[in-house]
Specification:
31% of the residues lie in helices and 16% in strands. A hairpin with a 4-residue loop joins strand 5 and strand 6. It starts with 6 loop residues before the first strand and ends in a 17-residue tail after the last strand. The protein binds ligand NA7.
Amino acid sequence: MVDAEPLDAVVIGAGFAGLYMVYRLREQGFSVQGFERGDGVGGTWYWNRYPGARCDSEIMFYSFSFLPDLEQEWPLTERYPGQPDILRYLEEVASRLDLRKDFTFGAEVTALEFDEAAGRWTLRTAQGHQVTARYVVTAVGCLSTANQPRFPGADSFRGLTLHTGNWPREPVDLAAQRVAVIGTGASGIQAIPVIAERAAHLTVFQRTAQFTIPAENGPLDDQFVALWKQNYPEWRRRARHSPAGFAYNPSITSAFEVSAAERRAAFEAAWGAGGFTFLSGTFRDLALDEEANETAADFVRSKIDEIVRDPEVAEMLKPRDFPIGTKRLPLDTNYYETFNRPNVTLVDLKRTPVEEITPAGIRTSAGHHDLDVIVYATGFDALTGPLEALGIRGRGGRSLRDAWREGPRTYLGVAVPGFPNLFTITGPGSPSVLSNMPVSIEQHVEWIGDCLAWARGHGAKVIEATEQAAAGWTDHVQQVAGHTLHPKAASWYMGANIPGKPRIFLPYIGGVGNYRDRCAAVAANGYEGFVTSGEGSGDHGARPGDHRAA
Ligand code: NA7
């Protein structure tokens, strides 16, 4: 399957990012083809079909802002949209914009090689497609390469083995089954209460206890929805210029400006209201000051004591290894409550580690658990994993994996020196997973679209971030993270969940609004930090920033 027609651009992925990028480039008159390994659109929401899968962003913010008609028509049913709703939304977007014809589905990209003489990329898939394109835009998501631990004997298990991030499309019947869930991150915390209701018995294998905050999910009031829809443009504007892509005001009060009783009352109110504002909306120093952070952590531990009836189980569930919020804070529905059920057992893997998987279950140092199903809720090789899996080779045949051996080096999280004409939507070094994704995705898609239009307008065939710009940005990303408590946790933000992965803070924590301004300034200054050349490699690097955007 060799496509002889050279393209202007290829886009990899058909989630929020890939759908909008293909649409945008098509509208701008570029010839563009999307490649997607799944058999349909959806990205994250195509793969994560596990029981209880739901978005932790509120539904009002979790959609595109560039489709005003759909924005008005789409029902805002529950506070947090479930996986089936989001998938339906993206399918509707694909239909309305007639996007499926521009994608090749069931096509897993395994090689992307840059031809320096031609200034073009060649893309190959495992299924035998081959195309060339001037530009590559990756829209592969930040959490799409599953982390699959290799326990001894794992292949011998006779029951069903599943991963939350790669859940089958056909319904999985867990009724009357003895189920294990390994992992208590955001996915495990969503899945555990729902699986517990269906399974005969559920054993939860916990390595690190997690803080979680009630989601307080539920139907949205009609009047609230009507008012929200009337004011949508203003909500969207505020989200774009906010710290995390939501239109809420962060607190300006320190945890120590109030009395202990007032502090507790503030946490109690936020716990009752549900959602991420438990941290950002209560006190301004929870992410910055260990003592302040500890007041919130203590509050959650006290809630665990209130909710969980068995004191020994409550103790096992209390997180003590990291400041609250430095690992992604999950939102839950009845998570701690689930451990009061008679059909649920909690196993602490730090005390009694897994020794092996057997044909009949899991053996820990304390004994054997008989099982029919093992669910790995063990997360992802975040941010860098999905990009490194594409087999990207840039100038001099250098692989991206090699270039990032000591951690990702990017300019604005959107471009990589040595890899010309390659753009990474929500790549490492951008707000990405620390933000409401559709807001960050729209900003990247629009910025990349403008950049390619500018390059075309200026006759540039090759555009590439400079080493210097990437070094400056990469240092800045680490510096900003260093002002927070985040580097103190062994989190996937730090690459700590993957053995051998460098410990570097991967996303940009400087805020969505600030980041947007920075990107806009780069564009306004003639794509400062990029170099362009007219044809192939001929005059590479000849014209750094000598154009001004129209
Ligand atoms: P996470 O947040 O990475 O959670 C994975 C969980 O699996 C976490 O509790 C890990 O424990 C545990 N884990 C990972 N490897 C192992 C091994 N080898 N043995 C036992 N336990 C293990 O992934 P999620 O899918 O829950 O969430 C990812 C993001 O998706 C989420 O933050 C949202 O943004 C959406 P650990 O804490 O590392 O000790």
